[in-house]
Amino acid sequence: MTHSAVIVGAGVIGLATAYRLARDGLAVTVVDAASEGAAGTSVHNAGWIVPIMSAPVPAPGMLGKAVRWMVRRDSPLYIHPSPRPDHVRFMLRMLRHCNTEDFAHGVEALTSLNERTLALFDEYEEDGVRFEHHRAGQLLVFTSRRTMEEYRAATAPMERIGHSAVPLSGDELRDLEPALGKQVLTGLRCPRERHVDPVSLIRGLEDRCRGLGVRFLRDSRVVAVRSRGRAVDSVLAGGEEVEGDLFVLAAGAHTGSLARLAGHPLPVRPGKGYGFDDTSGSVTLRHSVYLGEAKVAVTPLSDRLRLAGTMEFGSFDGAVDPHRLRGITRSARTYLPGLPSAVQPHGWTGLRPMTPDGLPVVGPLPGKDNVLVATGHSMLGVTLAPVTADLVSAHIAGGRRSTGTAHTAAPFSPRRFT
Ligand SMILES: Cc1cc2nc3c(=O)[nH]c(=O)nc-3n(C[C@H](O)[C@H](O)[C@H](O)COP(=O)(O)OP(=O)(O)OC[C@H]3O[C@@H](n4cnc5c(N)ncnc54)[C@H](O)[C@@H]3O)c2cc1C
């Protein structure tokens, strides 16, 4: 029987899992290297809940684009020309997944996984998780009809789970969002997509976890995993030996090395993103808006407008490259001309946990009987947090619950990397 769980990582995946397992009645401890909750990737993102974007990053043609963009320091996609073997190996593995068949498999798997996403966020609110939650819907806007048609085709499979993308003209889009400029020619309206303030979601989940008795160990990086045969007994963190019946590795982009400590490394690498918060009030929006060709996410929050973008492979650090921020600002002004032209002073970065096939890794760690992994959510960690926690909970419960989710969970098994 599982009575206690230790969760490594207090990002959105770790917290959603802690909340779910505490509600299941387990004694939960969350261990995190950071000293406070408002620091990592889970607060530095666009905050979108977007089942309509259920697609893996490795897509046909993706690496070709990246190679063309490698000469531009402000491009939305960038691969560092680093000779580090783990980086090269990862990129080559990802290249192998940039084909139509794997992409279609990934879309299908992520779409099924997203079936209950909105219902689970509603349940958060019903259960007293407090966070800033917007239901106005999302607009994907484009300066070219061709790009719009590509996105329209890409979003068609999500109609199966009730998420649609309705084509609109530039003028129809401006009726909905007058801040959009004349260059916006066409777009898609996705009425069921939502967004949150990610900072408030992290705080809300942590508060609710504390209310349920979850213990938090902050400033405590896991540096060793103690095992006896196939069972992990404890993790060593912040000078403390933390014991539990079950361990969940949810350390975001660092989960690969953490899994190595537990005896089975996983190919999880960072995909660095950038963003900033505009508090000038010069542009107001109701919907979250995706600036299609620029690949920039714009999120209207109660006290700021958040802009986020860029996928940079090969850097593990949190340094802010001003060229990238400038790239986001410059390209966003094409769509939203009212934005200030000056580079924003408070830029931030976040490390998306990436896998070579672009799919999350959720399930038992091979070689261990009491270790589960929950990571690799790439651009969809906020969206997929509640449903990931649900899969972990079902796995622990076993029996009918785990049989019921087995089909949905299968494509995400860590075993695919053995
Ligand atoms: C620019 C940008 C925009 C994004 N926009 C969206 C969006 O709109 N919608 C969406 O769904 N997703 C979005 N994402 C993706 C989303 O933010 C991530 O998928 C998600 O935050 C990953 O959460 P996580 O809990 O796995 O990892 P993290 O948030 O990175 O948390 C991992 C935690 O583990 C801790 N840790 C690491 N190593 C150790 C260790 N050894 N011991 C103890 N603790 C450790 C870290 O301190 C950290 O707190 C975006 C990401 C970026 C960068």
Automatic annotation (TrEMBL):
It holds the Pfam family DAO. The keyword Oxidoreductase applies. Keywords: Oxidoreductase. It comes from the Bacteria. The keyword Oxidoreductase applies. Residues 5-393 form the FAD dependent oxidoreductase domain. InterPro entries: FAD-dep_OxRdtase (IPR006076), FAD/NAD-bd_sf (IPR036188). Signal peptide: none annotated. This is FAD-dependent oxidoreductase. It comes from Streptomyces smyrnaeus.
